[in-house]
Amino acid sequence: MSLPLGYAYAATYAGIRQVEKDDLALIVSALPAHAAAVFTQNRVQAAPVRLGRKHLVASKGQVGAILINAGNANCATRTGDAVALGSCKAAAKLLRLPVNQVLPSSTGVIGVELDAAKITNALPRLAAGLSGERFEDAAHAIMTTDLVPKTAFAEVKFRRGTVRVAGMTKGSGMIQPLMATTLGYVMTDAQIPVTQLRAMLKRGAEASYNRISVDGDTSTNDTLVLLANGACGVKPDAKELVKLEAAITGVMQSLAQQIVRDGEGAKKFVTITVTGAPDAAGAARIARGIANSPLVKTAIAGSDPNWGRVLSAAGNAGVAFDPAKTDVIMQGVAVCKGGLAAPFSEEELKQKLDAADCEIRVAIRGKGKGEARFWTCDLTEGYIRINGSYRT
Amino acid sequence: MSLPLGYAYAATYAGIRQVEKDDLALIVSALPAHAAAVFTQNRVQAAPVRLGRKHLVASKGQVGAILINAGNANCATRTGDAVALGSCKAAAKLLRLPVNQVLPSSTGVIGVELDAAKITNALPRLAAGLSGERFEDAAHAIMTTDLVPKTAFAEVKFRRGTVRVAGMTKGSGMIQPLMATTLGYVMTDAQIPVTQLRAMLKRGAEASYNRISVDGDTSTNDTLVLLANGACGVKPDAKELVKLEAAITGVMQSLAQQIVRDGEGAKKFVTITVTGAPDAAGAARIARGIANSPLVKTAIAGSDPNWGRVLSAAGNAGVAFDPAKTDVIMQGVAVCKGGLAAPFSEEELKQKLDAADCEIRVAIRGKGKGEARFWTCDLTEGYIRINGSYRT
Q1: Nearest residue of B to residue A174 by CA position?
Q2: What is the distance between the alpha carbons of residues B150 and B224, in angstroms, rounded to a whole number?
Q3: Which one of A12, A144, A181, A326 is the catalytic residue?
Q4: What is the spatial distance between Cα B256 and Cα B376, in angstroms, rounded to a whole number?
Q5: Is A301 inside a domain boundary?
Q6: Are residues B21 and B144 in the same domain?
Q7: What global pTM score does this model have?
């Protein structure tokens, strides 16, 4: 699959992280792109998040470049605002863009001053390396505790031409995005008005990034950006936009799921489906409650079909439902029917739960039509090992 | 310290748990005691919780006996209601009490049928063993994954005599009581009207059991009971009641903290104090958010003064506060001032964090007067090991 037209990427090592591994990435759109973004809901917000919001307002949703560093979150630091603005200014000058068309992103440790000189010194060689082919390099550079880079692609053929979508993301811990994610960038070369782009992003995030959790912690730097630069010359009509939105949402779901698969210490990917809740929001709350229960997550790690923990976690979600009308299905096996134990072979199900992909389904029988799907991972000793010594 | 007058205790092995270790306990008050109880807020409630509520209403808050089994939660089982009622009836007959003066409690695995015969067969020898001295035996019998029994005592001297308080509790995992706890029983020999007893229990639980968390999961069987049988002949006046309530709350706090110290896999006991929040409820929400953050809990396990995670967890609690006016103090060392890194010796603080007791203080400077204290433990590989194979 080809990349969207009219974007260039670059990555370099600026010396921000201690290991010599690219830590600075640049995404540039040849034509000013329409942009929509969602950011973290955490009360504590990093300087680049605050500046990014301002720039999007000032530029009326036009973005020419995104400058991303890993290894330092530029959050809760004395010089944070100056560093974020200084980096954007330096990039804007090099790329001949208005400064408010540069979006800054940072990810990494909180509370350590970020040295602006490291970024400004690296910028010339970063810009010199820009190329339409270096998408994967940029996806590598934004990684922190990620074990693998995370990218996703889509292509939609319309009468007037082909529209392409490409996305990259990072994230492995401190994952429970709310209205946003860790860092995610999705590019398309279709032409889409800003207002429609915003609505598409909001719905897409709701069905993807807002439906995952690794550890229930929401980061201070979460950012998800959707760019549309129109470089392929196609301006989708209303019907085509629906098709394109499905492709974009698909890319976002793939990216979000890759984060969960790479969850810190995770060995298993868990899909949680809730049906029959009073409404979709209630279903999502129940699913999130199950996904965030350490007892459910450790049971999955141990291949233990401990449906009592699933039912108990559902009951703690603050949503009204009748346990006596609730079934729990694990790996397709009904383990609980109407709130009671159903007969099943524990030995066989244990084996099925050894799979890398597990499924928990909670079906509430009754009048409710609320459904939700949520993705999480198991909780293993690896998570503890990684997070007992992240900074040192 | 002596035990409250007029109570007797017993424990035996009824064969409910597989290991041969007492699993059935009985607490009897010689005089019918005034009783108040709070129960789990989980939507999924065990049969003994439902029956206990009914009995308290029917008896107008009179309790003669509490029958407790460990090893099986009697929750989400076909025969749950019948087993709970049958056990109470058998105990009531033996003890010559109205059935609604017997409170049932169960703790253990969810979703496995509890064999009523095991309890009714064991009851005669259980009742035969009743003694004012077997308080510790009962405290042992109610344990599940607990490593140690948990008891606390108080004595208050009034003009007309001495009032005594004794409490026992269990719990180690699935701990985030809300309006209740895992299982807890507090007895006093003072004479206290039921309405006042209820208010005392509510306030006491709010300051003790509702301020702890091991893993953020709320059990289906949480029950905290306060009994006052008047056996010491003292009916405290209004002023004395305040003093007695402080003693009772102290016993509850000690019990609650013992649960956290015995938290599954826990190596450290963590006290979280929040000051300067908009109100007390907001302070408690922030404290709970910090206490439930896996990233904070693993940092404490690793003796890592990672205050960025503390600040981020506070920011996720859904409470309005200004991060730029927020200090974080760990083990008495200011690590973050006004939302920014404060200078401190990382080496020295790491050593201080190796202590078994850790303290995290979040001080928001401003007009807010909301304060809260919360207790939690660190998150270690031991928690994962215990919960990856609980049932097998």
Answers
A1: B295
A2: 14
A3: A181
A4: 10
A5: yes
A6: yes
A7: 0.80
Residue A384 near residue B381, CB atoms below 8 Å: yes
Given B216, B242, B261, the domain boundary residue is B261
The tens-digit pLDDT sequence of chain A (392 residues) is 789 999 999 999 999 999 999 999 999 999 889 999 888 878 888 999 999 999 999 999 999 999 999 999 998 888 999 999 999 999 999 999 999 999 999 998 888 899 999 999 999 999 999 999 999 999 999 998 888 898 999 999 998 889 999 999 888 776 665 544 468 889 899 999 889 998 988 888 888 887 877 777 777 777 888 989 888 889 999 899 999 999 999 888 888 888 888 888 889 999 999 999 999 999 999 999 999 898 899 999 999 999 988 998 999 888 999 999 999 999 999 999 999 989 999 999 999 999 999 999 999 998 999 999 999 999 998 888 888 764 54
B279 shares a domain with B158 = no
Task: Tell me which of A312, A322, A389 to substitute to probe the interface with B (most B C-beta atoms closer than 10 Å).
Answer: A312
Structural domain count, chain B: 2
In a domain, B118, yes or no: yes
What's the domain range around B116?
A: 7-261
Q: For B281, left (φ over 0), alpha (ψ -120 to 50), or beta?
A: alpha
* A1 occurs within a structural domain: no
Give B-chain residues touching A306 at CB under 8 angstroms: 390-391
CATH number of the domain that A347 lies in?
3.10.20.340
Contact A90, A14 (CB under 8 A): no
Report the C-alpha gap between B288 and A366 in whole angstroms.
34
Strand partners, A54: none
Pick from B200, B233, B261: which residue ends a domain?
B261
ipTM of the complex in this document? 0.77
- Angstroms from B17 CA to nearest CA on chain A: 17
Same domain, residue pair A248 and A290: no
Q: Do residues B320 and B225 share a domain?
A: no
Instruction: Give the rounded distance of the alpha carbon of B219 from its chain centre.
Output: 11
Q: Are residues B297 and B195 in the same domain?
A: no
Token couple for B103: 């409170």
Q: Which residues contact A62 (CB under 8 A, 6 or more apart)?
A: A32, A33, A34, A35, A101
Asked whether residue A309 falls in the same domain as residue A241, the answer is no
Three-state secondary structure along A28-50?
EEEEEEEEEEEECCCCCCCHHHH
A223 annotated active-site: no
Per CB-CB distance under 8 Å, the chain B contacts of A336 are 76, 111
Interface touch B341/A293, C-beta < 8 Å = no
Q: Kindly state whether residues B253 and B315 are assigned to the same domain.
A: no
Q: Which residues contact B223 (CB under 8 A, 6 or more apart)?
A: B37, B38, B39, B40, B48, B49, B52, B105, B180, B181, B182, B183, B184
Give the CATH number, domain containing residue B158.
3.60.70.12
The answer to whether the Cβ–Cβ distance between B294 and A75 falls below 8 Å is no
Q: Does B1 reside within a domain?
A: no
**Domain identity same for B301 and B324:** yes
